[in-house]
Design a protein that fits this description.
This protein is an alpha/beta fold and 255 residues long. The protein has ten helices and eight strands. It has one domain: TIM Barrel (Alpha-Beta Barrel), CATH 3.20.20.390. It has an eight-stranded parallel β-barrel, surrounded by six helices. It is globular. The structure holds SN-glycerol-1-phosphate (1GP).
Length: 255
Amino acid sequence: MFHRILEACRRRGGAFLPLIDQERIAPAEAAAWAAELEEAGADGLLVGSSFTLGDHLDEVVAALKKGTSLPVLLFPGNAHHVSRYADGILFLSLLSGRNPLYLVEEQVRSAPLVREAMIEPVPTAYLLVGADAGRTVHFVSGTSPIPPGRPEIAMAHALAAQYMGMKLVYLEAGSGASSAVPPELIRRVRGYVTLPIAVGGGIRTARDASAAREAGADLVVVGDALEKNRAAGLAKELAAAIHADGATGEISSER
Ligand code: 1GP
């Protein structure tokens, strides 16, 4: 399943992954929204929330799958965010932090659930980058982010991830961040590792998205901005900016 996203990325020069927060969408709206995002040119959907009170994950993922043939990947906030209705899961290790809970303990709890759900794990090095104090992800994870002006720290973490056999590096500024991951940091990491790079957090406009893609992001993740503006216009603009060929609209959906 992850190969479909990488394949879309190769063909289109970048992959657009809208992030849907299962806490902020009604299951009844999810199928139609997934269909609109596919129509607009998304290459896959991520589903996740850094903090949940409710338990809508199965319902929302099942509804999304009804509306689209795109791969749906979980972007878990904790070990229990697993749904058998998804196609896969970013099996995250918060490598930029030194909190054993998010480096390995949650993964040990989650692995049997992922196996049981029979979904594809994508081993992912999750690197928080940013100067914003008090983002939810920093508070919840109890870790400090990599300073945005220190690309060499991000580069070393990404290379360690590659040497440890991970399949993806995720450079995360935090949902709703006031500034996205700086293009210069993305460029430096891109030049240092061969792993695919996902970038997310604070990407609001087509200009932000194309800056990330031009700096070397393979997968560009947008959550907050799309949530605040569900009109498909923004999704289309983002898709065109992320695809080097400017394409929107549907891609072949064979698995
Ligand atoms: C957050 O990287 C994602 O984990 C997306 O961030 O919500 O700011 O787009 P935004």
